[in-house]
Amino acid sequence: MKKSKKIILIILVSLISIYIIYAIYLLITNPVDTYVIKKGTLAQEEPGIGYIIRNEKVIKGENYENGIYSIVSEGQKVGNGDSIFRYYSDSEKEITQKLNELNYKIQELLEKEENNTPSADIKSIENQIEDKLVNTRILNNIQEINDYKDSIDSLISKKIDFIGDVTTNSEIKQLVAQKKEYEKQLKNGAEYKKAEMSGIVSYRVDGLEEELTEENFNNLTEEYLDNLDLKTGQIVATSNECGKIIDNFNCYIAVTTDSEEGMSSEVGDSVQIRISDKEKVDAEIAQINEESGKRTIIFKLNQMTENLINHRKIAIDIIWWDESGLKVPNQALIEENGLYYVLRNRAGVQSKILVKVTFKTDKFSIIESYQTEELQELGISEDEIKNYKKINNYDEIMLQ
Prior knowledge:
By secondary structure, the chain is α+β, with helices and mostly antiparallel strands.
């Protein structure tokens, strides 16, 4: 009996050893990967080329050949009736030169004056000039530099006007009076243009303002847009002859597509448009034009950005949908009879858990646990529902 027990024990130990060696071999030759569940987001995105359509009004005067002096800078908001720019008058250069000479003379006289203590108003203007001079050191855009220069010139002129009111120096008073006379001549000889609606001021005019409009939506097709011969990403050049006012509330982007999402979309559907890495705006499908098996979809955007003002044709991404939740690789899903399961590994104990797949892409899925009512609708027994285990964030699951 003792000898038989030893033999049985030896056989059992041998079998266990063989099993362990075989299991190690399987792990080496067929390693089992695991994945830690984390919350994430899935999105269905489509790259495209968008043509920008704005509600805009071009403003042009009779003296456009003289060039523009901007009163309101590019991108600033104005109200209906506000002055936005003027055209240089024929004698502008001559008068401007005289004004500069006067300002120089007045500045020289001020430096020679004793007890030249500035008032609070003058000190405030000097601080504003100093701030703008500091800011100009970091500018590299010619339009912004010119805007700052014009603003500084205006502040200097305002400062001298204040000095003319408080100074007792008769020579300075006379020069300031002469300066105001020149400014009056300059103003009387210029053509001022005002905003014809509220919105954003822009001097980037490309000639398509009357063509790419809401009234022309029905004509917007791939062929029509291609024939405009525009370069993607090109910044619209600044005009020196006219300006325009852009509606800052609504904007449209027309995109031609034959994707599954685009072909199944409907007017009124909500999406998101990614204009750049840092810009993502909400949009709604306003109109769909079909031609030659493709669709030109016109998206309505609810805000205006710098990119939408400066360009006419840009690369974008259409985000048809996105969903957040527990994100898992599709290799973790086990499909049986139309239902999905994951194999959870907790402290070496594996559990097969029924999960609901809410969204799925080629590589990943968003999953969640079923509610009791949903399990009942699936025909799951009361005992199984009672013992139903839910999947959680940071659970470890096996990859198939």
